[in-house]
Amino acid sequence: MAPRTPPTRRTRKAAAPASRRTPATSTDAVPAEQEYTIDELAREASTTVRNVRAYQDRGLLPPPLRRGRTGWYSSSHLARLRLIGSLLSRGYTLGNIAELLDALERGHDLRQIVGLERAISSPWSDEQARHFTLPELLRMFGVVFNPRTLAKVIELGLLEPDGLRYRAPSPKVLIAGAELAKAGMPLEDLLKIIEGLRANVQRVADEMVQLVARLLDHYGEGQLPPPDDVPQLVDMIWRLRPLAMMAVEAEVSRALEKSANKFLGERVAQILEQMRQ
């Protein structure tokens, strides 16, 4: 006789005794709610039993239903546990999460609050960071990429040391700088331009974003907007993002065109005059 194959987790759940399932209230067609022991819950949520107990102690996770000496957790516990893990991965502290959950109890839709945070803090560019080794950087920039220049690039945040490699949050800027350096432009001068550009662009960005920040300040310092206002705020921020990028890009293009006509056009005119003579 062939050895019996052990049942999978799904099969075991389907064959679980009635005590593991919430009885249907009307007909057998109503699906029974899944229940978990603390070990099963932690495994399903990709966390640890210790974390589950810690979240319970802090009031972030409701206590389980006790039957005998065993605590049974529902799918609602699993959803809450996954939400906590998602918020922690986005940089929230347990204190921040407690405030959000408290807002949920006060009538806010937590999905709307998380949506507001995502509209504000999610990346404004789809550019992916990239890693470079030191030999790669030397090939890109040539001999001009000396230790002093590397230190300045790191100071500006264009590169971040990461073990034996360097992480470039915006590879486009780094690659553009390398191409300009190959074309003969002094790299030190390019870094000074980037440093000055960053200060001016940051000032403009601060002023634009403060327009939205004033709308949030209207509700009081540290106060959440009323639930009915959150969707409109989220929509406004998402509409602001591409419009702000378009406005900055248009103004930079206008400034570059004006400078090109002013400085390069004058020199081309001089060259043509010399050719005519």
What tags apply to this protein structure?
single chain, 277 residues, mainly alpha, three-stranded antiparallel β-sheet, 11 helices, 6 strands, 61% helix, elongated, disordered N terminus
Question: Helix and strand layout, with pairings?
Answer:
Layout: H1 9-14, E1 35-36, H2 38-44, H3 49-57, E2 65-67, E3 70-74, H4 75-89, H5 94-105, H6 110-121, E4 130-133, H7 134-141, H8 147-155, E5 160-162, E6 165-168, H9 171-182, H10 187-217, H11 230-276
Antiparallel strand pairs: 1-3, 2-3, 4-6, 5-6
- How large, in whole angstroms, is the Cα Rg? 29 Å
> Main sheet: which strands, in order across?
1-3-2
Please identify the oligomeric state.
single chain
Strand content: 5-15%
From the helix content, strand content and strand pairing, which structural class follows?
mainly alpha
3D shape: elongated
Number of discrete helical segments = 11
Order of helices and strands: HEHHEEHHHEHHEEHHH
Report low-confidence residues grouped into runs of 5 or more: 1-31
User: Main sheet?
Assistant: 3 strands, antiparallel
| Averaged pLDDT | 78
The first-to-last residue Cα distance is 104 Å
Overall strand count: 6
How much helix, percentage-wise, in residues?
55-70%
Report on the structure:
The structure is a single chain. 61% of the residues lie in helices and 8% in strands. The strands form two sheets. The chain has a three-stranded antiparallel beta sheet. A three-stranded antiparallel beta sheet has the order 4-6-5. The protein is mainly alpha-helical.
